[in-house]
Every structure is written in structure tokens, then in C-alpha cells.
User: Fold this.
Amino acid sequence: MSVIEMRGLRKEFTVRIKAGRLRREKRTVTAVDGVDLRVERGEMLGYIGPNGAGKSTTLKMLTGVLMPSAGEARVCGLRPVAERTRLALRIGVVFGQRSQLWWDLPLRDSFELLRHVYHVPAGEHAARLARCRSLLDLDEFLDTPVRQLSLGQRMRGELTAALLHGPEVLFLDEPTIGLDVVSKQAVRGFLAELGRAGDTTLVLTTHDLADIERLCRRLVVIDHGRVVHDGSIAALHSRYGSRRMVVAELDTALPEPPALPGAPLQRVEADGHRLVFVLESATVAEVVAGLAGLAALRDIAIVEPDIEEVVARLYRAPAEVGEQVWVTE
Amino acid sequence: MGSVTATVAPPTDSNVTRWFRTFGAIVGSGFRRHATYRQAAVAGVVTNSVFGFLRYYIFVAAAGAAGRVAGYDRAQLATFVWVGQGLLAVVAIWGWTELADRIRTGEIAADLLRPIHPVTSYFATDLGRAGFASLSRLLPPVLIGLLFFDVYLPRRWATLPLFAFSVLLAVVVCFGCRYLVNATAYWLQDVRGPLILWTLCSGVLAGLYFPLGFLPGWLEAGLRYGTPFPSLLQIPLDVLVERDPAAVQFGLVGVQLGWAVALLALCRLVQRRAERRMVVQGG
Assistant:
């Protein structure tokens, strides 16, 4: 049985818009527009989309804090809204922009309180806390009140707080937002470790695609409330035509652009000293051999496809890249 | 899709103990959260004490040469004022907008994601807060009263325990009222209006500005039984100064109990309604 199931999940909001001095017009906005999705136990799912695409709304419906307008959802076999308190014992949630810790209490007290709230046996609690303390370096600020923690420290505290009761599913809503490079790495490293253990299902929304590349094998892209891609990152690249590129640095510029079979020239830089080819059917060796016959090569670099580029194209023109497409391997 | 029927564990002893342990832990955290702000507590005590003098002399002036007004003599008025000044912070009529703020900012989501009913969790926290206030804010004004004035000390043996219970109920009733006022944020977003109305009503009708006995009998009775406000201050203080016969004392606490139960039930009802239509603010 899938640990998360959504069938035709939909959320509409009614907003009132000014339409004159006193008049307000009601308008219905569809934030999530019929999402069908299944997530299996132990999967690490990246759930991305531009601002306002419906990511957070989906997460709110899955965690039971928002009532769907239509469709249904099951998480751990439970109906999120109707069985919210029971579900809360089995899931963990981290909101990058919100805190679930007690502002006035030291981190240590917050954790102790959570132990009672989630009815966790003392031994289990101590073991999980010890693990988080070593992996996330919590010790130096464990006795600091939450209001005095830096964002990076607080986020490490939030992650710990979400995991102390051993949840089956962990929902992370932009957990690396606003963090510096070191804290981001700490958070990612910790989540990767959690994913490797394989018994926690992870659903991650983010705008930082490095999070996804590092952590998730499966990527769901949502836009205007609809799923526009569901599959691996590689599948996304192949579907939307992102290719590896070869960047060749030449000693002398060529009089005219070279034509290599299977590797069209994408652009010319540095007064013709740098050429960028897209690898379509040709191999790197063929490109190098072809170029070597034309000019003296100073350097060759191979550039992996950039996921940001693909996703940016996807966000800009979702219709162009296809209606409701599922790519599965 | 395979359906799963989750079973609810029957209420066993261990479940009940577990619930109380959780409740106790949240009460303790409420106590510690407020114990962090000690300087604020000192500032509060000073303010309450200054206003204590002011109120006492106004009430005594109302009592006039006869030294009695609305069933209180001077000593009873002194007790009424000084214990009242201490109870203000225990009951916490003013200044609680935590729930409304969390609804407005969407932080309420974190409360809803815990395996405990929000009303229960806020209530336990408030009891902890009241516990800290009983130690830090109630005792100083009472001591000032004892030192500087001829105060009335209870004569019936049952009065003190009944007073303690009545204060507990006052805390519950006040929590219920504040929760409902804050919960209007689910619908209104901006709670300033309801908050001003609450501040005004609670001050006047709880017996803070003047004992409700100053009002005509029919009006006083109407307020006492028809609104929760006198349960906040007037009733506990009347119980303490033994203004009425013992049977009436018990009756008044009974009225408080009724309000406490009704308000907590109403809080849960309102919370449930709110969750059905709630929009968690922010992305």
C-alpha cells in the first residue's frame, strides 16, 4: 500500500476583489487542480513548482490543516483532516518559514515537551535525540532559548523536533530557505542520511534545485495546481531536451563556424576562441576528434545539463512542454 | 486503494495517565515560558500596586462616613482591592493575543500539527501561566494590603479552599473568553475590534472598576448569572470577603463552574467550525 495517495485532490479559495468603491467581487482561485499521486514507503520525493503553483497547499491538505475542496487524500492510510490528531503521531512536518518550537523555551525544553506531547518512551527519545545531536551539531545551542537562535541553528532544531517521535513520513516545506551554504549542507547531509536508512518517506518542496539533485530520485513538478512532470531528474532532462555540452577553448579563432555531425554549435564566445557544442548523437570523443582536425585545442570541458535551466523553461511555458505529462521509467 | 480501519484504543488506565502526563508537561512549560520574563513581572507588580492605592481610596470615598457600601465595610473593601489587584494578572484579563497572532500569521498550523487538541494545549499552557502569576503577581499586592491596611480576613473555615477553587474557575472562565475573542481571527483576521469590546466589558463587568454591588440589584443579578464577566473577579473576591452567607458562596462558585464548562465546550465547538473553513495564511 502506498504511504501517500492523492486522487483528484483539489483546493479552491474564494477571494474578494475590489471592483469599485464599495463593491467587492468574489472570484474563485484554484490552487490545486486535481492532483493524482502515489508515494511509496521510503521514497524521497521532490515536489517543486513556481511560487503559487500549489505546493504548500498540497502539503497543508496532506497534513490535515487544510480541508480539500474535492478529491481525496490518504496518508499512512488515514484521512488527514478527519483523523488529524492520529495522523500527527505518524508524520513530521518542517516548515522553513514557520516554527514549531516554543519561542521562549530553550531547545532542550522544547524537545522534552515534545516527548510528552507525542508520548515517546524516554529511551527511544534519548536515542533519537543523541543521533540528531551528533549529526546536526546541536550541543552548542541546546540550552539557548529558541528566540535567540540563528536561522540555521533553528532549522536544525526544527528538523530534530520533527523527527523525535520517529515519523513514518516527513514533510519538508522549503527547509533550506534562507540558510547559508554550511547550514544547507548540514541539512542536506542529514536528510540524505535519513533517506539512506530507508524507513522514512520524505516529501520535500523547495526552490533550491540542488536540494532535489542531492536528495530525491523522483521529482514531481506542479504548475497552476496541476502535475506537469512526474519522474526522475534524468527523465526530465531527456523529455525537455536538455543535453550535455562540450566547451572547447581554441588557440586561434576559426574563420567560420565548424559543422560537426551530431553536435550542433550552440554559441561562440570570447571572439571565437570558445565554442559551445550540444551533444545530440555525437560522443565527446567524436567532437574532440572533429575539432582537432580544424584547430589547435587548448582545453575541453564537458558541462552536465543544468536542472535549473530545464525547470526555468518548464515554469515559463508549461503548455509548450506538454499538458499533464507523466514520464515514468 | 486498500482501506485501513484505524482502531481507537479503549480508554485504559495507561491512556488516562498518559494524557495527564502530557497535560502536566504542557502546564509546566507554560510556567517556565512566563518565568523567563521576570523583569516584566516586577514592572507589572509595581503598576498593580500603584493602581491598588488609587482604587482603595476611591472605594473608601464611596463608602463615606458610614464606612459601608453595597454590603462591604472598609476592611472588606481593602481585601477586595488588594487581592483583586493580585488576581488581575492571575486571571489575565488583558493582553493575550497569542492565538489571534498565530492565526493571522499562519503559525497556527504548527499547533494543529500536534497530536493534541489546540484548546487543550492552550488551556494547559494558560494554567501554567496562571501558576507562575500566582507566585509572582498575586502575593506582592496581598502583602502590601496586609502591611498598610486593615484588611478583612475570612472567618469561615471553608472560605479559603472555596476561594482557591473559585480562582481556578476564574482562570478557566477567563481563558475561555479570551480564546473565543482570539478565535474570531479565524473569520476576521483582525481582532482589534473584538479585543477592545472584550477589554471594555471585562473591566467594567468583572467588578474591577467598581464592585457590581454598587449597581441596582436587578442589574447586578442579571450580570452575575447572565454573563461570564463577574466570574472573573467579582465572584472570587465576594467569596473571600464573605459578603454573602455560606450557601450563597457555594452557589456563586456553582455559577462559575457552569460558565467554565460551557465556555470550554464552546471553545472546542468554535475551533471545530474554524478548522472546517480555515485558510492557513502564507505559503
Summary: Residues 1-7 of chain B have pLDDT under 50 and may be disordered. The CA atoms of residues 47 and 85 of chain B lie 9 Å apart. The two ends of chain B are 30 Å apart (CA to CA).
